[in-house]
Amino acid sequence: MHGITADMKKSRDEDELKFTTKKINENFSNYSAWHNRSAILSHMLKNKYGGISAKEQEMTEEYELVRQALFTDTEDQSGWFYHLWLLGQKIAPIGPKLEMSWPCNGSQLVIDFNEQSHAYVSDFDTPFGTDHCMFSEGIPLVLHFSEPVKGVNASTVSVNSLLLQSESLVWRPISPHGLQAKTWVTLLKLPSTNFRAGETYTVQIRVADTLGIILLNGYNFACPTALNFSLDIHTMTIRSTGGNFETVPLAWEGENFSPLAIDENKFPIELHLGNLSIDGSENQENTRWQQETLDREIKVCRELLEIEMDSKWAKLTLARLLIGQDMLSDGSILRSKRKHTDEVLQLFNDLIEIDPSHAEYYKDQFSLILLDKVSSGKQNLQEYFWDSKGTGSLSNGERNKWLRLHGLSLSRLGCLDQLLWVQRLDISHNRLRSIDGLEALQLLGCLNLSHNLLANFTALGPLRQIKTLRALNIADNKIGAHTVNSTRFSFPSALNNSSISNADTTRDADEEILEISWEITIAFKGLHLRQLDIAGNPANDEKCRRLLMKTLPSLKWLDGTSVN
Known about the structure:
seven-stranded mixed beta sheet, nine-stranded mixed beta sheet, 12 helices, alpha/beta, 21 strands
């Protein structure tokens, strides 16, 4: 009986597929026919009716059919949507991986440990050179995945060392969205005993050796990964690394900044942008047919652009195909080998001009590709290294090292997994309306967000996840310019004899204070900021300043003025 039912379903699917072929040949713009065809084929692929396989030649006829539609009318979106669906069947996305960690794989941390205060000062190598950071509660161990996951705990992540036990570690997701996150962190706390000063201890970590890390789609994370680093431990009186905030505020720009020269022989950047040890190997046969499909469809898009050079669909599809080809060629981590980045950036620039109705989407994609390029290797990243000296620097006159990504017209943040080591970041003079993703930078101490398009304090919510943040500049944004007037959604009631014509649509001062207070609490509660700059925002009035000082009792400087 089961076989008869299966044959009936197979026959019905084949008949419906022939019907969609007829309708498409009658009119290539028949979106319903293309959509139904994708649904029927999805069912046939799932059940392997007629021997159809997404990885075999049977799908070749589908590509030939949709090419006829694309060459007939390059701007007809019906065929392009089906083309995108076809690519999704044959070019599976790169599976989820552990993209990066801090401490990074193979690195060494020199730890000064104060047994009385249980505070740590860590010296570690970065692409800048040696840097250091103070941790009051423990040394953060950060894991950054390519996709949000849940279930990261002592059972699914083993940490082996003579100093530490996995069972004692508590992992927490770095996300405002519950228990699923790309970034997870735990604190490594050294015991008061059981270690010998001056010795080096290895920490070995294995991720996903056992099942339990779950993806958003409900499947298990199936990419076991190994990494290790070492701790060179010393006991001594803790030195200050937080900056001389007690006497002088931090300078955000000016003549104190200068490009930072890097000794490439002494501090090889590959240590920090290198790959992790991932168990297993990619299916070479799958990679081969994926590459062949990408090469063929890239050629099709280029031929279409020779016919219609301003075809937005051809340019957008070509950009996506080139991104896929680069990722397939060298993986999602080794970005320095990607050869199509500049062409993709130019394609999105073209799309901004020829399709202004979707310009914001193209600008976001441009920003992600540009950040991917910036963080992809030694030569690209070094251009953005700066140091500063003078006001706000360490009391001993040491120069502060900054990563300055200012003035790049960024509208969206991404590709931050390669920057987990950054402590001082300048992303001012961009077009950011959101800073989602910035919470991955768990060492961040100083952040310049001035001259962006942030519209309210709640846009700063990701910063609550960064416990090391001490200095923040959000001057000259739009904070307070677009306050929601909740009374617009109030309706007159027969119980109070009010009417639309005389309804009071102005908010009283108490309501405004309540809303600002709520936003400030969401953004800043739990942070230990020492310096905050908010000048040039519409919300920067005396009421707002009082609320900020109340929410941030650790604050020493507000807009360059000492806080009593």
